[in-house]
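Work Package 4 report. The design task specified in the project plan requires that, given a folded chain encoded as structure tokens, an amino acid be chosen for each position. We show below one input record used in the internal validation round.
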């Protein structure tokens, strides 16, 4: 019962109330939660906190003030007991009895404390109690695996409230390092729960929140978390209904965060404006090694801004811009970015409507780039002319590091094949994948 009361006092999801637009929905699920002060007081389960330092505020599950430890009723009893004590000196027998009583009580307190600590080392009791308060069924899979280093809760249908309950034990969990919460329909409330948890948890390094529809509310909370968290290295936000508004929050965090190394924002609806926002953030970021922006309808000015940011970034190793619509202008901008960048090793610009002229401009950057090892240009209408231009640029660059070219579904002609054979002599490890040799029509003899 003591543990249950302790959980009921825990204040989680303080950052959720920062979004006024969804405040009513959040309060319906969690009850009124006080805003976190600038100094951000620790939760009662935070490392280094103690019970008698608990901040008095409305609890997340709407319990009455009578459930708090150190209530007015208890203080009154202590005062009456203190007033009823005698000031007369004790005789020898009384002193012995008093000493025995104190020693016995002290041993009992220690035993109860040890027993309580050993009982909930994994956080199972806190999780069950949180589920009870929120009216959700505990996930047996999580109960079985929460002591492991890698936990997968993908496709479990947790929902917003289930995600909130899951966040409670994760605040102090020290076992889980990789957490997969893919496709759980967590929405903004669940995303904010995970964000607030990560402000306290310093063990989780990889988190998959893809396919959860966290939207702007979740993105805003996660951006706030990224300004504080120093251990999260990989974050997957694919398919989360993120738009330019959500991107604005995340871009601010990316400009300052130096610890996140891998970010996946693919399959969202960022658009051209978001590309411009991310381009500026990309130029300032000093931590990321891989960035996935595939399937986001980024084109026009957005692509140009991203290419400029790519040229200024000196930390990224892998970038995926496939399925966006770069076109000729985007290919020209990327080619210029490859001139300036000296760290990128893998670039995917497949399915981007790049014409032969775009591939030729891209090749200008490849003629001087010294780090690109893998270039993927599959399913672009560059034709054999564009493929030939790229291959010729590599041949003309003595310092080229290219090892793999992907021209899937693009037919090449005999001229390309001859060029590839000559390059293989100087670059024997170079591999090229294409859509096959184009057949030439020959006149039949009459």
């Amino acid at each position: 019962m003591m543990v249950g009361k302790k959980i009921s006092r825990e204040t989680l999801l303080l950052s959720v109330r920062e979004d006024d637009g969804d405040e009513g929905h959040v309060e319906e699920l969690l009850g009124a939660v006080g805003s976190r002060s600038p100094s951000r007081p620790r939760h009662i389960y935070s490392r280094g906190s103690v019970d008698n330092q608990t901040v008095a505020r409305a609890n997340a599950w709407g319990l009455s003030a009578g459930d708090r430890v150190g209530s007015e009723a208890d203080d009154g009893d202590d005062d009456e007991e203190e007033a009823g004590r005698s000031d007369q000196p004790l005789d020898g027998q009384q002193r012995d009895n008093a000493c025995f009583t104190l020693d016995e009580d002290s041993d009992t307190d220690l035993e109860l404390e040890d027993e309580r600590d050993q009982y909930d080392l994994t956080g199972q009791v806190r999780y069950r109690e949180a589920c009870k308060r929120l009216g959700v069924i505990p996930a047996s899979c999580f109960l079985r695996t929460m002591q492991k280093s890698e936990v997968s809760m993908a496709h479990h249908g947790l929902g917003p409230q289930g995600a909130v309950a899951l966040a409670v034990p994760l605040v102090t969990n020290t076992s889980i390092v990789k957490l997969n919460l893919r496709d759980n329909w967590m929405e903004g409330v669940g995303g904010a729960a995970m964000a607030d948890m990560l402000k306290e948890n310093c063990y989780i390094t990889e988190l998959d929140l893809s396919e959860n529809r966290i939207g702007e509310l979740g993105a805003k909370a996660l951006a706030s978390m990224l300004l504080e968290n120093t251990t999260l290295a990989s974050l997957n936000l694919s398919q989360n209904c993120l738009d330019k508004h959500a991107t604005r929050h995340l871009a601010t965090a990316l400009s300052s965060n130096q610890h996140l190394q891998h970010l996946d924002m693919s399959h969202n609806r960022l658009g051209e404006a978001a590309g411009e926002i991310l381009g500026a953030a990309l130029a300032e970021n000093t931590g990321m090694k891989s960035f996935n922006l595939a399937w986001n309808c980024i084109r026009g000015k957005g692509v140009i801004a991203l290419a400029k940011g790519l040229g200024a970034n000196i930390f990224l190793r892998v970038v995926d811009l496939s399925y966006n619509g770069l076109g000729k202008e985007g290919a020209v901008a990327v080619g210029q970015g490859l001139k300036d960048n000296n760290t990128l090793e893998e670039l995917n610009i497949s399915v981007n409507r790049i014409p032969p002229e775009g591939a030729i401009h891209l090749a200008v950057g490849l003629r001087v780039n010294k780090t690109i090892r893998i270039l993927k240009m599959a399913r672009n209408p560059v034709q054999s002319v564009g493929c030939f231009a790229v291959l010729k640029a590599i041949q003309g660059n003595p310092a080229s590091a290219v090892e793999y070219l992907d021209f899937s579904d693009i037919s090449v002609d005999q001229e390309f094949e001859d060029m590839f054979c000559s390059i293989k002599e100087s670059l024997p490890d170079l591999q090229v994948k294409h859509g096959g040799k184009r057949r030439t029509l020959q006149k039949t003899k009459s």
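The first strand starts at residue 150 and ends at 152. Validation will be extended to a larger panel in the next phase.
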